[in-house]
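Record type: ASSEMBLY
Status: queued
Input:
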Amino acid sequence: MARLTLREAITDALREEMQRDDNVFIMGEEVADWGGTYAVTKGFLEEFGPRRVRDTPISEMVIAGAATGAAMAGLRPVAEFMTINFAFVAFDAIINHAAKVSYMFNGQFDCPVVFRAPGGGGKQLGATHSHTPDVIFAHFPGLKVVCPATPYDAKGLLKAAIRDNGPVLFIEAVPLYTSPKVRDEVPEGDYTVPIGVSDVKREGSDVTIITYGEGLHISLDAARQLEREGIEAEVVDLRTLQPLDMSVPLASFKKTFKAVVVEFGHQTYGIGAEIVARLQEEAFDYLDAPIKRVAQNDVPAPYSGLLEKAALPDADKVVAAVKEIL
Amino acid sequence: MEKETLLDWYRQMVLIRRFEERSDELYQLEGKIKGFLHLYIGQEAIAVGTIAARRPQDHLITAYRDHGHALAAGLEAKYVLAELMGKATGVTGGRGGSMHLASRDRHFWGGYGIVGAHLSLGVGLALAEKYRESEFAAICYFGDGATNIGYFHESLNMAGVWQLPILFVCENNKYGMGTAVDKASANPIISDKARAYCIPAKRIDGNNILEVYDETSAALAKIRAGEGPQFLEMMTYRYEGHSIGDRTRYRPEGELHQWRDEKDPIATLQKHLLTQMGISETELMAIQQDVEREMDEAVRFSNESPLPELDTLYNYIYPEA
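Status: finished
Output:
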């Protein structure tokens, strides 16, 4: 067992899957010679060679489309978008093709493709490079959307994604990549974490905080602050946005009767909107207070650090939201 | 070319044409086909001639005007027609419809409804063969209109950079929906666009099945010899509108008649059979009657087939483990 960063856990999963199965290969911008713009695939070209680690032109449409076609023909491509912001250019290939071929052709074709997409804001990269657009990809049936928050989950979920026979969008929160406080014990050998299963990351009895990805870590920070004031928050990590496993958040909510949803995407039509709808539909009698949402303000990400930070969720905002409903 | 082979091609082309004509009637007169219906009448020599030149393991992928390719790939008319009528017995169980025919067994990866998008999938099919170091290729069909979208350029570029085993077949029928090729493409010579990506390209007569077959065979041989992607621009003409309901007011007076009277792909082959191959009118009539019986049976089968069960609605959203 080693203590790994999120990025190291992802690298390990990719390397182990490529060692295990010759059908697994990597394609994307700067994945080979450069070693990945976030250095996730550093050393892979030397280890696996140019057949299996393929630099592409800056062509997101054909990166996504060719990976989809190769997957239909039986390979297991891991296609990397340099950032999730560039996946917008490939939206048609992902949503209209990868996510449709199984259903539209009546189950004749599998499509075991993984799209890796680093995302998230807070790095002063400006409005076009700072999105957390996870929810728009999770809107469509046919595409699994996985958003790990811990190194342990990241390694196990990425292995599960690569072995899945359908398309998976694997969203990695860049701010977590090398963060020391996200470091985690990660087993060296093989294991998987099932896609579509939520997880309690901290137990508590007073309020349920439902979150995922980067939101997990500010929620855990908030829970520690609240603990000092005698408030015990339970923190639920969704881990997968599509298909959404509501059993864990519902069980927790039925215990605490109060909930806050935390996400880094924009608030309007966000993950929170879906979770709130599901909680009131399926557990109306347990509702003791309004369910609050903590999300990114509905503004394009400004460049200036102070402004950008003001628009993003943080632990203080989560604490304030919890206190409003207790 | 063997007489039997040519008669088989003739039969396939007549079947495609009659399939399209019967589909048109089932849509417009009987209301049994809904949604989009893009007919292939006038372009039959391309699907039949190219697919005759492939090996069974070579991949086929095309756009939404896909009935001809499906039939030429060996999908049975009755299952294709049942798909158009949304029946459970259709080739994709009534989930795909006219634009999304497919057969895994026939290596026919589908018709696709988003213009140009499937070129990128075709690149992926070819990539899989290159990755496995096989001798098989992908044949990717699209219209002239698709050559103006980003997918086309990204796909040709990647196929060129990676030297993938793919044959691009542009079926240039002069119109992308209702917009003439020279109004939509800064360079109306589509094969020039392939040359920009260093892909060998030829413009050929797409209504002459002998030429289509020979050029496809030559291009596939080059691909199998490791020469990378190839491109054929096949000149042809679509007799019907873009889809049902298009009255083709954008066409110049007489253009359709000229193509139909002078360049029809079935008449061209028929003339060759009668004058060069010693085939009699009677033999061709027998083939036409045989096709008519097959279509009668296809219509009967499709009419009598059940609709999909409601409890299948959620099947295959995700592939089964």
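Annotation: The CA atoms of residues 104 and 288 of chain B lie 29 Å apart.
Annotation: Chain B has twelve helices and eight strands.
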